[in-house]
Amino acid sequence: MPRRPDPERLAAWRLLLEAHAAVVDRLGRELEAECGLPLTWYDVLLQLSSAPEGRLRMRDLARAVLLSRSGLTRLVDRMETAGMVCREAHPSDGRGANAVLTPAGRAALRRAAPVHLRGIDAHFARHLSDADAAALGDALSRVVAAERDPA
Amino acid sequence: MPRRPDPERLAAWRLLLEAHAAVVDRLGRELEAECGLPLTWYDVLLQLSSAPEGRLRMRDLARAVLLSRSGLTRLVDRMETAGMVCREAHPSDGRGANAVLTPAGRAALRRAAPVHLRGIDAHFARHLSDADAAALGDALSRVVAAERDPA
DNA sequence: TGCCAGTAGTTGTTCCTGCAACGACCATGC
DNA sequence: GCATGGTCGTTGCAGGAACAACTACTGGCA
Fold first, then answer.
1. In this predicted model, what pLDDT tens digit does every residue of B105-119 receive, in sequence order?
2. For B26, which residue in chain A has the nearest alpha carbon?
3. Where are the domains of chain A?
4. Chain A partners within 8 Å of B22 (Cβ)
5. CB–CB of A129 and B136 under 8 A?
């Protein structure tokens, strides 16, 4: 017989869906309004800036920003047109390409980060007690890990 | 000065994004593969079935499934073509329309529900302790409530 | 009664995404 | 050397979503 989640956990799942939708929507709008920057662009800039030398292989960047390879190709196209990233051939793998953060991209991230972090605090973090944050981190990291390793 | 979330809460936010993406993607694929039903369709069927008489105003349904009004119009178009819902004029408000669950829609939901619930258990609920579930529900309901009431 | 701001649902348009397919390239086998 | 299977990034294509404009209707007010 199929295992079903109990009502408490089912409600938790539903709440996760609602909270995600509400907060992502809000953060996206705020970032767009105050910095003219889509959330996906911010994510790319952030991932690149926290990578060594501000560059990342397309494949790895796609994984980091939770996008398909083709999706990332178009996204980097747009951001390259906007001058925030550029491409370079991979030094050792002839198939590969790196996306590289440009100074303009770094500047955009510096402008956007305070806005986004303030939003995360106001719309999410502020409502979590220390215990909540710990439990959430614990539980969700197990969920993510289980999905990564189809053990 | 702008308030910034501490690293622990920031990590929790990031994990929520990753868990949401991973689990929604997985659940959607499983439902599509085993029942030929997109996740959004399931959500519509579920909301309708839990409404009195299996009918809901378009506006309310749109809110319930976290979609824009225009998005819901097209979605109901597709589902109506598939015979799972139908529209009827609202009895008292000449502007309004109700989406109504058909027998076929009810049957599809009955087939899909076990699959989906099993998935929620396997990919999400199973990884939560009782305390985790309680903390998650508590915290996320506060987040959602705060977003609903711009207090 | 007639007017009119507000709301409901639909439609046109545009944007973004994933899938499938493709050429280029790597790596391992013979 | 060179075939072969696999990976990387890109592209054609189709589907789904949001925004804004539009029509139809409501409800309050003079």
1. 999 999 999 999 999
2. A147
3. 30-145
4. 143-144, 147-148
5. no
Q: What is the pLDDT of residues B7-33, one digit of tens each?
A: 999 999 999 999 999 999 999 999 999
Helix (H) or strand (E) holding B98: strand B97-101
Which class in CATH covers the domain with range B20-148?
Answer: mainly alpha
Q: Do the Cβ atoms of B3 and A140 come within 8 Å?
A: no
Task: Choose among A59, A40, A6, A20: nearest CA to A140.
Answer: A20
Tokens of A139: 């539980």
The tens digit of pLDDT for each residue in A9-21 reads 999 999 999 999 9
- Residues A22 and B79: their CA atoms lie apart, in Å, by 25
- Which segments of chain A have a pLDDT < 70? 1-2, 150-151
Which residue is closest, via its CA, to the C1' of D25?
A: B95
Fold of A30-145: Arc Repressor Mutant, subunit A (1.10.10)
Q: Quote the minimal CA–CA distance from A9 to chain B in Å.
A: 6
